[in-house]
């Protein structure tokens, strides 16, 4: 499923003023792409996401689905929201059923899927996300941990197998185990040629899963291109106010060179003595975060 936006503008209106959030947005998404959408808070990322599955309608401009202009009729919107699923930044905003099973099964029920097929699909989806079906399916979803709630929100979309899923800050506040589950979910979607739009400040995850990155700055695109090129050739802290992935910071701190021929995903292991000294000079929360990243990185090197 291909998606194209053409000259899209959108404003939020209140009692005193109109504030334009998206300005002349145009870009294309090819079926099966994995694309990161990043930018500062308030740059328009979530607003743009809600245009992609029809929750918001542009003030001006057009949205094209597989070459056909979206007409915003109820049947078109119903189908679009089945084909493009959105997981909000705060999962509790879209959780309303009494049990995890009913929450995950809800969309399938709305589409009239056979009950036995629903049961099998729900249980398989929960298992694929690393969750214990027997332990979690009868729990109240509003009493789950933050990481569990995010996974349940994602599962509620996966059961209907959309062409695209939009994940809005899916790793926010997650521990490393849940972070890894989200990463593996995205990789599984890529392997199945299903599209993913990752809205995130987590450039570690972006680096690992998204070949293409879009950067929004005050409702306009500041960058649309390869993730590697962005990280190698741009000072993203100065230009976009974004924190580079830890592995990029490590290489720059160790004065190791990066160029356009560098495959960032295959960087060789650094001098561990220098690396240890560099980590020790970081604030405690930063050291803890780096520890998780490096454990996984070193583990990958040993395979």
From TrEMBL:
GO terms for cellular component: ATP-binding cassette (ABC) transporter complex. GO terms for molecular function: ATP binding; ATP hydrolysis activity; ATPase-coupled transmembrane transporter activity. Keywords: ATP-binding, Cell membrane, Membrane, Nucleotide-binding, Translocase, Transport. It comes from the Bacteria. CDD domains: ABC_cobalt_CbiO_domain1 (cd03225). InterPro entries: AAA+_ATPase, ABC_transporter-like_ATP-bd, ABC_transporter-like_CS, ABC_transpr_CbiO/EcfA_su, ECF_ABC_transporter_ATP-bd, P-loop_NTPase. Its main location: membrane. Pfam families: ABC_tran (PF00005). This is Energy-coupling factor ABC transporter ATP-binding protein. It comes from candidate division LCP-89 bacterium B3_LCP.
